[in-house]
Design goal:
Structural class: mainly alpha
Strand order of the largest sheet: 1-2
Mean pLDDT: 80
Shape: globular
Distance between the termini: 37 Å
Order of helices and strands: HHHHHHHHEE
Radius of gyration: 16 Å
Oligomer: single chain
Amino acid sequence: MSLKNDEQFYQLWLLFKQKQDVEYFKSYLKHLLQHFDGSIDLQFKHIQEGSQLDSIPLSTLPSNLLQVIRDKLEQSQSLLVENLKDDTLQFVLDMVKVLIVLCRNHDNIALIASCEFFRQIIPIASAVLKKIPEFDCDTSKEKYMDLVKHTLHLGECMITFTHGGNLFLFYS
């Protein structure tokens, strides 16, 4: 099923906008990721294949989605730098994953890069990296490293990609 015909997807956004409840936004992100999570390729096979499969144009999503993600990243940054909490960390990871999915459509990259999401994401990833040596359990470390890996992947998606044999740089 595509998002175009997915009424629940749009209802979650409307509920979030109407009630300004972050739980609806989290559900919206999770619903989007259910459709596209398989397109997050930490090995960059899609670049080698030259495909944009499973991508979504920003024009089909709410016009202020990127602004909402940026605002929620700013709020999460202040929370996570002081105190790492699993639910906030998962929320940030979901936002990073959505940005990666959106970058699968190369036409979206310039606009996503212009939003400067890394101003919020890098301090979060740094706080996570500082905490990792404190964990005794490998499972806990892996959960936190997942955010770091996806942050790096997002950076790779936005810094360079090939299109028609040309190399483009979008983040400075």
